[in-house]
Amino acid sequence: MLKSARKKEKDPEGRMPLGEHLRELRNRLAKSVLAIVVVAVVAAFYYRDIIEVFKHPIQDAIGCKISFAELANKDSRQQCASITMSGLVGPFTLMVKVSLVSGLVLASPVWLYQLWAFLAPGLHKTEKKYALGFVAAGVPLFAAGGFFAYKVLPSAAKVLIEFTPGGVDNLLPLDELIDLVTRLVVVFGLSFELPLLLMMLNFGGVLSGRRMLGWWRGMIMSVTVFSAVATPTVDPFSMFLLAGPIIVLYFIAVGVALLNDRRKREANPDRLLSDDEAAPLDLTPQPLGDSEPLPPLSEQGAHHRAGYDDVT
């Protein structure tokens, strides 16, 4: 059984030798991998239900509900796609992929905690507070971005399927569909983290709120262009469905940054001083605390005989 290396430490600052750090990292990684494997094994028994969650919106939007024989006689203006799989081992490969991804996502509370437990002892109290706040805000932001992607994809599929030439049957491999949905969820989720990244830079003293506000024109243009590239459609609705929330979150981040800058200025005791005025020095005497007792005279004589002076 793996034992945590930090149970033996007594340093209040969390310091330990390099060997203990490596042992602690090994233990944390082992626990994280074990949690992912266990969840992936459980998800393997329900992988059909998991696939149905991703397949159902697309199938309702563009899925063909008729046979291949009927497709040949259908109206060419009514485009649809048949979700297929190819190869004998294709279903098994898809099951393994879906199970591993589900294990990685569903076990994220475990491995995120292990990562936090490894890094937390090296952080100060204020840094821990900020880190927990950013993690707590980052998870729902990523989930909101993934939810938007999940809602945009059916309307995007309807637009994309219209580009199919007449008289051509559209076959949509299921593994490619799952990959497309996963990529869109990740892209939308990460894009919703942009305001949080700006706030982290502001709280770290790297970026001021006034400078962030000065970027608003370029930021709106950049977010709009990114949304047009990230969404796999040509309709403006899907583009603004992604760009709108990001722009709103950007201005919320600017407001929080401006308030944080104001709080820092008010907490600075030298804020009223001019640039060429020296800050006053605090010359109040401070207690020295308990002094270390000197060794007995016999030990001092022994040090002199050994060749050491009083300083060493």
From TrEMBL:
<dbReference type="InterPro" id="IPR002033">
    <property type="entry name" value="TatC"/>
</dbReference>
<feature type="transmembrane region" description="Helical">
    <location>
        <begin position="213"/>
        <end position="231"/>
    </location>
</feature>
<feature type="transmembrane region" description="Helical">
    <location>
        <begin position="237"/>
        <end position="259"/>
    </location>
</feature>
<keyword id="KW-0813">Transport</keyword>
<feature type="transmembrane region" description="Helical">
    <location>
        <begin position="94"/>
        <end position="118"/>
    </location>
</feature>
<dbReference type="Pfam" id="PF00902">
    <property type="entry name" value="TatC"/>
</dbReference>
<dbReference type="GO" id="GO:0009977">
    <property type="term" value="F:proton motive force dependent protein transmembrane transporter activity"/>
</dbReference>
<comment type="subunit">
    <text>The Tat system comprises two distinct complexes: a TatABC complex, containing multiple copies of TatA, TatB and TatC subunits, and a separate TatA complex, containing only TatA subunits. Substrates initially bind to the TatABC complex, which probably triggers association of the separate TatA complex to form the active translocon.</text>
</comment>
<keyword id="KW-1003">Cell membrane</keyword>
<feature type="transmembrane region" description="Helical">
    <location>
        <begin position="29"/>
        <end position="47"/>
    </location>
</feature>
<keyword id="KW-0812">Transmembrane</keyword>
<keyword id="KW-1133">Transmembrane helix</keyword>
<keyword id="KW-0472">Membrane</keyword>
<protein>
    <recommendedName>
        <fullName>Sec-independent protein translocase protein TatC</fullName>
    </recommendedName>
</protein>
<dbReference type="GO" id="GO:0033281">
    <property type="term" value="C:TAT protein transport complex"/>
</dbReference>
<dbReference type="GO" id="GO:0043953">
    <property type="term" value="P:protein transport by the Tat complex"/>
</dbReference>
<comment type="similarity">
    <text>Belongs to the TatC family.</text>
</comment>
<keyword id="KW-0811">Translocation</keyword>
<feature type="transmembrane region" description="Helical">
    <location>
        <begin position="180"/>
        <end position="201"/>
    </location>
</feature>
<dbReference type="GO" id="GO:0065002">
    <property type="term" value="P:intracellular protein transmembrane transport"/>
</dbReference>
<keyword id="KW-0653">Protein transport</keyword>
<feature type="region of interest" description="Disordered">
    <location>
        <begin position="269"/>
        <end position="312"/>
    </location>
</feature>
<feature type="transmembrane region" description="Helical">
    <location>
        <begin position="130"/>
        <end position="150"/>
    </location>
</feature>
<comment type="function">
    <text>Part of the twin-arginine translocation (Tat) system that transports large folded proteins containing a characteristic twin-arginine motif in their signal peptide across membranes. Together with TatB, TatC is part of a receptor directly interacting with Tat signal peptides.</text>
</comment>
